[in-house]
Amino acid sequence: MSRAANWTAFFLSLAAVLAVAVALQSFSDLENRRFDLTLESRLTLSPYTLSVLSEVKSPLRIDLYYQRGERQRPRDLLDLMRDHCPLLSYELVDLDRNPMRAKEHGVDHYDQAVLRYEGRETVVSAGSEEALAGGIMRLLTERPRVLYFVSGHGERSLAPGKDDHLGRAAQFLRAEGYVLRPLSLLQLPDVPADASAVILAGPEVDPLESELETLSRYLERGGSVLVLVDPVALPRLEAWVARYGLELADDVVIDRANRVYGSDGTNVVVPYYRDHETTKAMQVPSVLGRARSVGAVAEGEAPAGVVPTVVARSSDQSFAASDATRTRVGEVTFDEQRDRPGPIGVMGVVLIGEGERPGRLAVIGDADFASDAFVTLLGNKNLLVNTVGWLTERRAQGARPQTMATQLGPMSPMYVSDALARRIFLVTVVLQPAVFLVAGVIVVVTRRRRR
Question: Which end of the chain is more exposed for a tag (fewer CB within 10 A), N or C?
């Protein structure tokens, strides 16, 4: 082959390689795929954040003020958001080098962002994906969403400090953009007009009839109410809930196969959710404390036009132990005469009225799941914020970014069934040492035979 032919073959081969490379690059630009192998999925936006970004219909500007040396983390997050929302633009601003600019916009801490959208401007926390997504959602909403927490009946406190308080839950709800306010039904003739929802969180004293009538008027004019109620005798509240088609029984849900490992079974893992707006984003089970059952009243007993729906249930191995006081004296076994076999409903919802904006009622048979001791475990946080999102008619839904679970004193935050616990025990305590023992015996025997 002549020298010219060799050079021609070389250039043709080079052109072919370049063409393949250009084709591969073009295909990769059109079909971009990201593989997140980090333990906490730090390189993947949560379904909730993606849902929030899908609500952006006009240009969204973010000026994020960072601490020197901490530029890369917020940049990675904002790049991820911009990849999913072309209308988003951002600038990273060094707070130490631009103090006057920060002061002009009301920024006084690192990891704060100035958001601008459709002529509105606000300053939000941007220290995490969840905080920034909540700030964006708050900016997209033209009026603030106010949650009123009923007080005066021994309800759970919103102040942090104790395991049974709702301090962390309040923090999560504020990060979502909600405004939290107390509400005394005895002091006000009606629920305030700016209420997006009213929450009755774990009352220990039965509300008065006048207070319940106030809630009824609020519901029937299109309001929303969330009731978190433990296994406590509250006859007036139980009768009020039954008025809207949901039944609170005098029992405690027991599940020894799906429980907090090592407990007596009153801490129940809830694996089953109905495909409903309140629970469709639930990707992992939730953990309830000492829960009571929530069911629908018998057919024909619900008011006309009211269709109650049970949206969360315990496992098939669970049962509802009648008479809640039985669980306070020790371990309870299933009694065919008194107890109901599972699955047991633990959460119900109902729409009230058929107007343009029907009232919304959600009842969960446990207040512990939202407490500081439980809310960061498994799917508890998502259950709370998605239920509140349904009540306030927020379009953006989905699982939130994962948070690190807190340590519950001597209790481990990892939950497994009894069967899985036995398998873990057999593998780690029996099988694995046995494999090394057999391997060691084989090595010793083999060496002795060679001698």
Answer: C
Q: Give yes or no: residues 106 and 252 share one domain.
A: no
Select from 114, 139, 164 the last residue of a domain.
139
Determine the pLDDT at residue 181.
Answer: 92
Contacts of 243 by beta carbon, 8 Å cutoff, 6+ apart: 216, 303
Note the pLDDT of residue 228: 93
Q: How far apart are CA 13 and CA 20, in angstroms?
A: 11
**Of the candidates 170, 146, 147, the residue with the CA atom closest to the CA atom of residue 160:** 170
Q: Cα–Cα distances in Å, from 225 out to 210, 213, 386? A: 16, 13, 14
pLDDT (tens digit, 9 = 90+) per residue, 376-421? 888 888 889 889 988 987 765 555 555 544 444 444 445 555 566 6
pLDDT at 410: 41
- On the question of pLDDT at 237 being above 90, the answer is yes
Of the candidates 198, 362, 383, the one whose C-alpha atom is nearest the C-alpha of residue 294 is 362
Indicate which CATH number applies to the domain containing 53. 3.40.30.10
Residue 300, in any domain of the structure? yes
Burial class (CB in 10 A: 0-12, 13-18, 19+), 356: exposed
One domain for residues 134 and 148? no
Look at the chain and report how many structural domains it folds into. 3
- Domain housing 259: 144-391
In angstroms, what CA-CA distances link 105 with 61, 100, 178, 187, 370? 14, 9, 22, 39, 35
Residue 19 lies in a domain: no
Residue 84: pLDDT over 70: yes
Q: CA nearest 111: which of 175, 31, 59?
A: 175
CB of 379 closer than 8 Å to CB of 282: yes
Structure confidence at residue 405 (pLDDT)? 44
What's residue 409's pLDDT?
41
Clarify whether residues 179 and 278 are in a common domain: yes
How many whole angstroms separate alpha carbon 423 and alpha carbon 446? Answer: 32
Q: Of 119, 117, 326, 349, which is closest to residue 224 (Cα–Cα)?
A: 349
Residue 296 lies in a domain: yes
- Which secondary structure element, helix H or strand E, spans residue 181, and what is its range? strand 178-183
> Cβ(166)–Cβ(226) under 8 Å?
no
pLDDT grade for 330, boundaries at 50, 70 and 90: low
Q: Is the pTM of this model over 0.70?
A: yes
Look at 128 and 240; give whichever has higher pLDDT: 240
Q: Which residues pair with 198 in a beta bridge?
A: 148, 225
